[in-house]
Amino acid sequence: MRRTFRIAWLVLIVVAAVGGTLVWSLGHKNGAETALRTAPVQRRDLMATISATGTVEPEEVVDVGAQVAGQISAFGKDKNGKSIDWGSAVEQGTVLAQIDDALYRADAEAAKAQLQQAQANAISADANVLQMKAKLVQAQQDWDRAQQLGPSEALAPSTYDQYRANYEVAKANLAVAQAAVQQAKAAVLQAQAALERAQQNLRYCTITSPVKGVIVDRRVNIGQTVVSSLSTPSLFLIAQDLTRIQVWVSVNEADIGNIHPGQPVTFTVDAFPNQVFHGQITNIRLNATMTQNVVTYTVEVTTDNAAGKLLPYLTANVRFITGSRHNVLVVPNAALRWQPQVNQIAPQFRPAAEAPSTAVRRNPPPASAPDASAPRHGTVWVEQGEFVRPSNVNVGLTDGTLTEVEGPDVVEGMPVVVGEPLPQASGSPGPGPSPFTPQIGRPRGRTAPGESPPGGQPGGGR
Questions:
Q1: What is the C-alpha to C-alpha distance for residues 73 and 189, in angstroms, rounded to an integer?
Q2: For 337-390, how does the pLDDT look when each residue is reduced to its tens digit (9 = 90+)?
Q3: Average pLDDT, the chain
Q4: Burial class (CB in 10 A: 0-12, 13-18, 19+), 381
Q5: Which of 299, 273, 276, 275 is nearest to 286 (CA)?
Q6: Cβ neighbours of 366 (radius 10 Å)
Q7: Using the 8-state DSSP alphabet, how is residue 367 labeled?
Q8: Which residues pair with 317 in a beta bridge?
């Protein structure tokens, strides 16, 4: 009987402990469910952008080369009297460099002598024509007299024939002399062309600037030999106008649909990280490039560089402004993504046909793009006691972090749920074990072999 009473008493203790543990767990769980993370609705300006990377480039660059081969003998002087170098400001016609012209000067002198010889030959040919004309006149007179006498006792037949042959030879000699005159004139023209070519090559030995600008790159040194037999060697790179400069930006094919000429752009460079520069899209190049199966397009952005801070070939971090809003209500994107469980929703807002484990659906926040013509809808959740209630909103522009919202009961400062409570860090205080948890396997008043009782004395006991 006593053993039965003891067993009943132990069963009662176990049942009470289990019930207390359940009550404590449910109370702790309900408390955790209501401790949701929230963020207030803010009123602020919103800007949607697309980020990309580009390179600062001069708006127009002239590559100055050499059209003759030779050794660089000297550099020219800029307007300050200094030798042409990187960063030198030059005017149109400024001498940039001088190629050794000894061979080309000799060629020009030889061509000049050939021209003089050709001109002398032309004069000689003209004189020869006059001589042949005189001989023809004499031969014609002799032939005319021979024809009047005819073959007779006064003029032998052989002499008659000789006068006739002399006349024909004189006509032929005149024609040859006239042809020689034309040949001499052609030789003069050829010699003149050769002289002009030699003189032009001599002028090519002096490299001059074709435009007004700034030397961006000097690619030769004094004593270096340039060879232009196969291709024109590049000597200098001149930026025509650095007060206006461009940024060449590589834009992914997924974003190019949101880019158009005239669109405003902001960018920064590492040289001036705290300064924001502004520009405008002027051109979208159609010759796309593919790198590792990624298609990109080059977008030209023009900006004012009157201050001269932007240097060619700086790396630019570019933001294309695809949309902007002023003084609108915004919420974090997490507020539009969070999905409550049905048991977290206030009873009057719970869907009647949903199972308890089904989460409430919501519309995702829009992509970072300009507004579509049709409004988009979403839902944010607001705490209501131990539960949450939905608030339907119209979703507008987003910058990837915040999204514009508008709704009948959405006001500035209203807290909206953005997520579940964060897990506690290791070592932080938290709920301890339930006080009702029974010590299974260690009946009160007994100790395991080798252990000491609570009082520290060894012994058994009942």
A1: 34
A2: 999 999 899 988 887 654 444 444 445 555 454 444 567 899 999 998 889 999
A3: 83
A4: buried
A5: 299
A6: 19
A7: P
A8: 53, 268
Cα dihedral 383, 388, 392, 398, rounded to 10, equals 60
Of the candidates 412, 416, 413, 372, which has an alpha carbon nearest to the alpha carbon of residue 392?
416
Which residues are registered as beta bridge partners of 75? 97
* Residue 15 one-letter amino acid: V
The full length of the chain comes to 462
Q: Which residues, including other chains, have CB under 8 Å from residue 358's CB and lie 6 or more apart?
A: 342
Q: Report yes or no: 394 and 377 within 8 Å, Cβ to Cβ.
A: yes
Q: What is the DSSP letter of 359?
A: B
Say if residues 368 and 355 touch (Cβ distance below 8 Å).
no
- pLDDT above 50 for 241: yes
Burial track 149-170 (b if 16+ CB lie within 10 A, e otherwise): eeeeeebeeeebeebeebbeeb
What are the φ and ψ backbone dihedral angles of 383, each rounded to 5 degrees? -65, 140
CA 407 distance to own-chain centroid: 41
Residues whose CB is less than 8 angstroms from the CB of residue 460 and which lie 6 or more positions away in sequence, other chains included: 446, 447
- What is the C-alpha to C-alpha distance for residues 266 and 252, in angstroms, rounded to an integer? 18
Give CA–CA dist 259/448, Å, rounded.
79
Structure tokens at 245: 């400069």
- Encode pLDDT of 73-105 as tens digits: 999 998 888 999 998 999 999 999 999 999 999
Q: Which residue stretches of 325-406 are H helix?
A: 333-337
